[in-house]
Amino acid sequence: MRLYVFILCVCPFCFSLLDSNGNPSDICTGNGPDTCSYGGVCKAGKCVCDQSWTGDLCDKLNLGEAKSQTNNGYNPGNETSFASTWGAGIIQASGEYHMFVNVMSGECPNVIPRAQGPWWGLWGTNSHVVHTVSKDVEGPYSPRRIVLPNVANNPVILRNPLNQNYLLYYEGLPIRQLNITPPVCNGTNTCVENCSGYKFNAINPGPLNVAVASDINGPWVIHDLGIRPRNHTWEDGADLVNPAVYIFKNGTTLFAYRTEQGNDGSWDLAVAKGTSPLGPFQQPTHLAFPQRAEDPVIWRDARGVFQMLVHNCSGPGPPPNGKGVWHCLSQAGSAYSLDGLHWVVRGTQPYSYTVPFSDGSQLQCVRREEPKLLFDDSGQPTHLVTVCAFANFTARVIIQPFSKKFI
């Protein structure tokens, strides 16, 4: 009689077998993608991963080495400046790569220390969106113009399949409507001007918007997408952030975003469905993601399965002030869905917080979040765009290619 030891996997459809000698046996069963986290197919008891995925259960992104630390992304300051970038979307047009990136005004980092409390988050005061360009997808990128002044966050750039217009999704309000004067840091990691008027809780201003242009260089016309909190108890647009968009060829649109759905101030993900990229969108009837999370990005793979990356926030409960799960886990998460509305979470982190480069160097991030993707003409991802945050409160956008090798 042969003795088998079962080791349960995080994927609900997969399991691994070790025989009595500790040798691995089948790690998947059947011949469909459901047994390999919908990132590959099971053949002869082993998962054969799609190009974008790797790992025994095809639940890790198949990423390669970036080319250069120095020339990667966009640097808004000099080598010693604390000026930071935070979140970016990239699209190719007119023979160039166009990155729409969050930059903190006043040459500020994304957060600054404060006398009382942990830090000041400057997303709600200093964040604006800069249009940058490069001949190389990884950079370096040069600034062209500010397209969305303070306050605008989380840019996502796509094209409308119905008319080829450019769609720049984001959340935010003009600074004049917030009655806030942005702090100034002048390249340091502390506030040097306009420090007294900053309100710590004035972050993540909604509503969710889309700027539309027929040319990548504008002009841009802004539309409020009309998405509001489910229970309508907050000020319109309050904490509706992190837009992620998937547009079908007929214009039907899935719109994911982070919102507060419960009384504990937890961060949850909802997905609204609309008849066009500009809406109107149906009010979500349930939470799409079974864990607390933020920063979603959605795409649809070659077999028609929806894939999602997130920043995982399913750690400890809210901080002492009772609002917001500020201490998200320092890791990424992923999920898949057959309809784009109901999601199954994978338990494995899809990418690490270490970014390798072709010269053998590495960049170590304290946090790595705000995932975005660059796609090829078939709609499959070619590059992962994330924010790498460091212990000195600075952050920068990093562009990492997918590997061209099957692993």
Give a quick set of tags describing it.
407 residues; 0% helix; 4-stranded antiparallel β-sheet; mainly beta
Plain-language structure description:
The chain has strands spanning 4-8, 15-19, 40-43, 46-49, 53-54, 60-61, 85-93, 96-104, 111-112, 120-121, 127-134, 142-148, 153-159, 166-171, 208-213, 221-224, 241-247, 253-260, 267-274, 293-300, 306-312, 332-337, 344-346, 354-356, 362-364, 367-375, 381-389, 395-401. With 407 residues, the chain is mostly beta strands. Strands 7-8-11-12 form a four-stranded antiparallel β-sheet, with no helix packed on it. Strands 13-14-15-16 form a four-stranded antiparallel β-sheet, with no helix packed on it. Strands 20-21-22-23 form a four-stranded antiparallel β-sheet, with no helix packed on it. It is globular, with a radius of gyration of 21 Å. Mean pLDDT is 81; it is low at 1-25, 232-237 and 316-326.
What order do the helices and strands come in, and which of them pair?
Elements: E1 4-8, E2 15-19, E3 40-43, E4 46-49, E5 53-54, E6 60-61, E7 85-93, E8 96-104, E9 111-112, E10 120-121, E11 127-134, E12 142-148, E13 153-159, E14 166-171, E15 208-213, E16 221-224, E17 241-247, E18 253-260, E19 267-274, E20 293-300, E21 306-312, E22 332-337, E23 344-346, E24 354-356, E25 362-364, E26 367-375, E27 381-389, E28 395-401
Antiparallel strand pairs: 1-2, 3-4, 5-6, 7-8, 8-11, 9-10, 11-12, 13-14, 14-15, 15-16, 17-18, 18-19, 20-21, 21-22, 22-23, 24-25, 26-27, 27-28
